Amino acid sequence: MTLAADPPAAETAPPRGPAIYFDGTCSARNDVSVEAGTAGLQIFSADRHLLDEWLYAELRRQAAPDGVLRLGRNGETLLARLEVRDAALAAAIEDRAVTLDRGGAAERKLRRKVVILSLAAVVSLIFTAIIGVPVLATRLTPLIPVSVEQKLGKAVDSQIRATLDTKHLGSAFVCGTGASGAAGQAALDKLVGKLKTAAALPYPLRVDVVRRADFNAFALPGGHIYVFQGLIDRAQSPDELAGVLAHEIGHVAHRDGTRTVLQTAGLSFLFGMMLGDFFGGGAVVIAAKTVLRSSYSRRAEAAADTYSVVLMRKAGGDPRALATILERVMADKDEGIKVLADHPDTKDRIVAINASAPAGVTTPLLGAADWAALKQICAPLPASGIAPASGTAAASGTPAGGGQK
Amino acid sequence: MATIEILSPIVPAAAVRFLGNEDAYWRLRIKGAALVVVTLGIYRFWLATDARRFLWSNTEISGDTLEYNGLATELLVGFLFAVAILVPLYMVFALVMLELGMVAIKPVLIGFALLALLGEYALYRARRYRLTRTVFRGLRFDQHGSPWRYACYALVCWGIVIVTLGLAYPWTQAFLERFKMRNTSYGDLQGGFEGSGLSLFLRGLPMWLLIVGPIVVALGVLSAQIDWDALSRLLEKGDDDAAKMIGNMLAPGIGIAIAAACISFIALPLLYPVFQAVKLRWWISGLRFGEVAVTSRLRIRQVYRVYLRLLLYLFLLGLLASIMGGMTVFAVVSIVNLIHNATLTQVAVGAISLLLYVVVMIGSSTIYQVIVAAGLWRLGADTAALTGGQALDGVRATGSASSALGEGLADALGVGSI
Asked: CB neighbours (10 Å) of residue A318?
């Protein structure tokens, strides 16, 4: 077996060339010559001893710098390596060993599969988020005991109050606490009492009016409802306020707060845990969550509107009053943006409310004196020297029937 | 002198070199980043594996290159394991928080400490995974040692660093590095670390004085000006004027405080490359494997060049993003003006800004990976040399591969590295 063979024999003689061999037990570097035979590689030491024989079927390509074919064996416990820098020999080995994935076609196919399957996963994830999560949350919500819900509401409450109370009014943040607001509070209690009786909820309601100039009201899990002073100021009849309250009671009755918590947790799980925390991915996740949440909340709002109409009829109030106040506030452009941010499609909501509620004359849920007192529930601040919120004085000075632009 | 050092031919037997071509790495990273975005992150395991293969394969030590033989699927499995562990943990957390009320500060702190502990645990196990997947001359590296012990040490070290305003950092680093390297082996060659905390401290002290010093001085000056007795009397009375009173007392010192803050804020970015250079050189020079010692000739201005390139590329990316963003927003606005649909405009502008944001974020991360992470890797390799390198010729095999759980945990907790 010599390297210098005569021409006809050269065609049949197996390709041969230099390589570096590591036996996997010792780090010593062995300069070897490798012969690419019919079934496998024969590795010869410098003094022509056969060191090892590797079958083509068990060869495996290992990561290496450009221009080096680094080979290992499948299923090895030792990491023996053969490094071929000789281009002709490397090509000959790649010709003979199919497992080496010449040109990386098999690897590329695998990668393509990963990308396609990931895309499929993303699509199914989005479907789950849109359809599965709200359904699951709706099924799970009734299983959560009311006591847990109230605890949840309490835990959220102090945080919410701290973020709302931007002027740091402390205990003065809630209206109707002092002697000055007592009449207003009594009127409010009367109004809430009527709704409560009509609603027949399994747990107590608590309504607090707070000193915030914007038009808003919301319910926490467990039945705690916040009404902003701005809403009281803009309401022109007790039924308008009652309509909004009935809407919030609808959220309480439907346990939307708890459901939102479950939905948010579900979404966080889906997007946060299963999928990547890649750089910049956070924003995509937040955007996706925001869009999905607003789609969930749209459904919840519509349901609460329907509830408001039913409850107002039961209580003997004007079921269309909610639509009236929404319409007025929507016309007020500056506030309209804020409302739109939380309650999209206000116009559609108004149409839906008016469609489901019969028109007709009803007697207001509160008498004129009670209503006047309720409008004043926030007016005189306790003597702490803080100026009233802008617009409060003008609005509260307006009689209940007076047009407000 | 330094230039001659860099240009002078390296003695092959003791040499460490980086052979990789930066353009190839750019291609790898950019293609990977695009796929990571498309797959919402799942491809990151393949990208990380490709990047490691590239960096390892192109690092040549005494004439032979390293080999990374980890698989992306191992990382994926490790990640899934981590999720399986973390999900119930997060749930227990949420329940406990709910039970105690969300504002309670103690559970939050305990939770944070637990997560930090888990993070350090994950880092140690991830290091083990990477080492056992690193092959050199047919033998693998290995790491022993309890990850929980390491995590506890690391947490205590961070506490000490915070309490000493960073002054203890060199010693804690030396301690942790010693722990890691003493538990590291290449075949039967035992690892070690000989960087001393004191030497890093002496090199870092001028930087500390310029960055933290002014703030400490300013705080000292300010607190000296406060009449504490008067203040406590005011606070007892619950007077609203307390804030005003403090303001009056501090007024003369405000100038000093602002000047100090300015010095710190200017010094911080200017000195950051110096800090990185000093630390990297200290770390490389401290590495030992049996008789083999590593030395580093890394120069500070080489690291500066890396960070200047980073700034340049980030600037170019920002420019590109602004032009692209401006053009698309203009196009969308002109189209929407024809349609008159406010919701559509909002959606379109939102989608564009989100896309731009993702491009900028993933772009800057790619730039950072190529220019800083790989750049420092290249610099570190090219400026390193071995003494006693002949000991590398007679190492015997030991050890076996480990699971990728730590890596998965590190990924899920967001504490992963290269």
From this structure: 25
Predicted local confidence at residue B412, as pLDDT? 62
A158 and A46 within one domain: no
Q: Does A105 touch chain B (CB under 8 A)?
A: no
Could A278 and B36 be called an inter-chain contact, meaning their C-beta atoms sit closer than 8 Å?
yes
CA-based max dimension of chain A: 122
Question: Considering the domain boundaries, does residue A387 fall inside one?
Answer: no
Identify whether residues A140 and A40 lie together within a single domain.
Answer: no
Domain count, chain A: 2
Write down the pTM of the prediction. 0.72
The pLDDT assigned to B283 comes to: 96
Give the tens place of pLDDT for each residue, A19-38. 999 988 889 999 999 998 88
Mean pLDDT, all residues of chain B = 83
Q: Give the pLDDT mean for A85-107.
A: 85
Count Cβ atoms below 10 Å from residue A281 Cβ, excluding itself. 21
| A117 is a domain residue | no
**Residue B209: both structure tokens together:** 């004085």
Cross-chain CB nearest to A277 (options B64, B136, B414):
B414
Same domain, A91 and A142: no
Backbone phi, then psi, for A183, in 5-degree steps? Answer: -65, -45
Q: Regarding predicted confidence, which is higher, B29 or A78?
A: B29
Helix (H, G, I), strand (E, B) or coil at B415: coil
Determine the pLDDT at residue B7. Answer: 38
Distance CA A257, CA A255 (A): 6
* Residue-wise pLDDT tens digits, B267-309: 888 999 999 999 999 999 999 999 999 999 999 999 999 999 9
**Matching residue, tokens 């409450």:** A157
Contact B135 A62 (CB under 8 A): yes
B42 touches chain A (CB under 8 A): yes
A276/B60 touch (CB, cutoff 8 Å), yes or no: no
Note whether A159 and A301 are same-domain residues.
Answer: yes
**Rounded Cα–Cα distance for residues A267 and B332 (Å):** 31
pLDDT at A277: 52
Inter-chain residue contact B137 with A70, CB threshold 8 Å: no
What is the domain range of residue A142? 127-379
Position B148 scores a pLDDT of 92
- The SS3 of residue A240 is helix
Within this chain, do residues A201 and A255 fall inside the same structural domain, yes or no?
Answer: yes
Q: What Å distances lie between residue A168 and A176, A177, B3, B288, CA to CA? A: 17, 16, 63, 60
Interface test with A, best of B17, B36, B40 (most A CBs within 10 A): B40
Instruction: Specify the DSSP element, H or E, that contains A116.
Output: helix A105-127
Supply the CATH number for residue A13's domain. Answer: 2.30.29.30
Question: Does A343 have pLDDT greater than 80?
Answer: no
In a domain, A173, yes or no: yes
CA torsion B26-B30-B36-B42 (nearest 10°) is: -30
CB within 8 Å: A79 and B35: no
Q: Is residue A331 scored above 90 in pLDDT? A: no
Of B46, B97, B393, the CB nearest to A111: B46
Identify the band that residue A403 occupies on the pLDDT scale cut at 50, 70 and 90: very low
Domain match, A206 and A312 both? yes
Whether residues A140 and A69 fall in one domain = no
The segments of chain B whose pLDDT lies below 50 read 1-11
**Same structural domain, A34 and A73:** yes
For tokens 């790898």, the residue is: B28
Write down the pLDDT at residue A4: 46
Average pLDDT, chain A: 78
Tell me if A108 is assigned to some domain: no
Q: How many CB atoms lie within 10 A of CB B387?
A: 12
Q: What is the DSSP string of A174-210?
A: BTT-SSTTHHHHHHHHHHHHHHHHHH--SS--EEEEE
Q: What is the pLDDT of residue B254?
A: 76
Q: Which of A66, A81, A276 sits opposite B44 (nearest CB)?
A: A276
Q: Does the CA dihedral A125-A129-A135-A139 come out positive or negative?
A: positive
